Amino acid sequence: MVTPVAPEIDTALDHPDPREAVERVKDVVQRRLHRVHPSARIVRTPFFNHTYVPDLLMTWKNGSGMAERRVYLRTSSDPTLLANDVMLLEREQKPLVVPLGQVGQGPLWARLDNIAGERQTLILDPFGLGVLPPHSVTRSPVALASDAIVEGGRGIMGQGQVEQFLASVDLGVGAAREGREAPTRVALDTLGRRTIPGVAHRLATFMAAMWQGSGRSMTDFPGNVPLRSSLDATSLNLLLSSEEIGDEDFWRRIQPLVDIKPLLESGITDTENLQHLMRSAVGVWKAHVCMVVEGRGLSGSWRWMVERGRLALQGPDFVAYIAGSRKDLEFPDEREVPLLEEVRGRANRHGVTLTSIRMMTSNRSIGYDSPGDDVTNDPQLDGISAALGQEEGVVEALAVTPGGYALRCNFSTQTAGPPGARALLVYADLLGTALRLLRPLGEEDAAVLRTLLGGGPVPPEEWSQPTLPEA
Questions:
Q1: What's the rounded Cα separation, in Å, for the pair 267 and 102?
Q2: pLDDT digits over 72-116, tens only?
Q3: Buried b / exposed e along 155-190 (16+ C-beta atoms within 10 A)
Q4: Residue 227's pLDDT is what?
Q5: Pairwise CA distance, residues 460 & 215, whole Å
Q6: How many beta carbons lie within 10 A of that of residue 361, not counting itself?
Q7: Are 162 and 131 in contact (CB under 8 A)?
Q8: If you average pLDDT over every residue of the chain, what do you get?
Q9: Helices in 388-466 by DSSP H: which ranges?
Q10: What is the pLDDT of residues 44-60, one digit of tens each?
Q11: Spatial distance between the Cα atoms of 75 and 49, rounded to a whole number of angstroms
Q12: Collapsing DSSP states into helix, strand and coil, what is residue 236?
């Protein structure tokens, strides 16, 4: 709910102690900016109406780095005085000036608007600040437009200009999603005129992704972005944190614009749009290793997420992390290994081919492999198991993925990866095969995994060992 900020400022200025009045005004503006952009850190300075020193300093995460904007409060709303102040401020610092009253209209207003726009400065009066919507978890186009004003707006923005900007971007994003040219062009023109180039390009890239997701050719996009523009971390954050888009064809078209590196830098942790993106990405993106950690999942929940800079699939009682290199994962804890009977049962249940099995007892290590044939149900394994007292644990197995590649699964460290330091597998093959062997998945979880990863090995109806011929 939007509440006016001008009356709060007027009340603060009515305090008889000028110093206290100043602090109360700062408090009002700081509180309102934080309500609109809570992820920003806002620091107050001990100055007021100073020419060079900002009254507030806003900093926020921008991709893998940090961005900042200096906020200056001004007691006067006279366009001439404000224009003189703007000319003295550093253009590169993208100043945000908050006059404590409404800026007067007329030729001087237009002059100030032009100067502020050219100087990359935003004049945001109390009425404009008051209609900025509060932050919401779901990032609607209006919320994205509001962030654009705070992070990179320029020119004069009172209530009318803010409302017009929010409505234009909202309509433009929806139009880009549907491949409609005219409203998309209007929104892009508004962004170019009312925001600094970096912010305008960020939202233009986001809208270009929506355009491509609609099925329209990028040659028809009414904006200046590369025809195959990849989404950077900030643009990807906009997309994945926006309102849920359930159209799987949309995500299939978007997937070529996205890579794992900007995803890990985007600040996204777990959104519905991330789940949709990953359904398209699992059959394309590649990694070298996955590691399963027990006890970190939520009961009954399967979700893709980014945790501490690593992509992971959360299961009912575990989290499986995926990485391009072993060094990108934690050092695994060694766990008790399953018995041969259990591993063979998992392989048979899920239709996984095993070409090599390494077993151990308390004082012996035994390897059993073939030149490529499936050894899972070899009768000789029963003899080995019987000879060892059926207490042999499986330390490692070499499996064949649905794509026909080898995958080494270590049951002790709960890790899996293809042989070869630089070998890579698509996520669906790597994660699907590893989880089917490393985890005791029931039928329901196995079905969920097939849905998440787009298929996988088809388990046989039932396997039974043939009767051995009598001697």
A1: 36
A2: 998 888 999 999 999 999 888 899 999 988 887 888 999 999 999
A3: bbbbbebbeebbebbbbbbebbbebbeebbbbbbeb
A4: 58
A5: 39
A6: 12
A7: yes
A8: 86
A9: 427-438, 443-453
A10: 887 655 567 888 899 98
A11: 7
A12: helix
The answer to whether the beta carbons of residues 154 and 195 sit under 8 Å apart is yes
Residue 311 to residue 322: CA distance in whole angstroms: 6
One-character DSSP codes across 348-406: HHHT-EEEEEEEE-SS-EEEEE-SSS--TT-HHHHHHHHHTTT-PEEEEEEEE-TTS-E
Cα 193 to Cα 201: distance, rounded to the nearest angstrom: 12
Give the Cα separation of 193 and 165 in Å (integer): 10
Report the candidate in 400, 391, 409, 403 with the shortest Cα–Cα distance to residue 427: 403
Planar angle of CA 403, 450, 321, nearest 5 degrees:
80
CB neighbour class for 384 (10 Å; exposed up to 12, middle 13-18, buried from 19):
middle
3-state secondary structure of 416: strand
User: How many other C-beta atoms are found inside a 10 Å radius of the C-beta of residue 132?
Assistant: 27
**Greater pLDDT, 443 or 331:** 443
Cα separation, 155 vs 321, in Å, equals: 46
The answer to whether residues 321 and 310 touch, using CB atoms and an 8 Å cutoff, is yes
- Residue 64 pLDDT: 67
d(CA 117, CA 448): 53
Instruction: Name residue 395's amino acid.
Output: V
Please, what is the angle between helix 427-438 and helix 340-350, to 10°? 140
For 155-302, strand residue ranges (E) read 155-157, 286-287, 289-294
Contact 257, 88 (CB under 8 A): no
Q: Which residues contact 132 (CB under 8 A, 6 or more apart)?
A: 2, 32, 36, 146, 149, 150, 162
Structure tokens at 241: 């944190």
Strands (E) across 8-91 are located at 41-44, 56-62, 65-74
Q: What span, in angstroms and rounded, lies between the C-alpha atoms of 468 and 272?
A: 53
CA dihedral 13, 15, 16, 22 (to 10 degrees): -60
| Dihedral pair phi/psi, residue 218, rounded to 5° | -70, -20
d(CA 86, CA 70): 12
Torsion of CA 139, 41, 200, 258, to 10 degrees: -60
Give the residue from 75, 91, 63, 69 showing the smallest Cα distance to 26: 75
Contact partners, residue 205, CB within 8 Å, separation at least 6: 225, 229, 231, 232, 235
Calculate the alpha carbon distances from 202 to 195, 197, 223, 251, 301 in Å: 10, 8, 12, 19, 34
User: Which two three-digit tokens encode residue 357?
Assistant: 């099995």
C-alpha to C-alpha distance for 312 and 298, rounded to whole angstroms: 13
Comparing CA positions, the residue from 111, 187, 192 lying closest to residue 156 is: 111
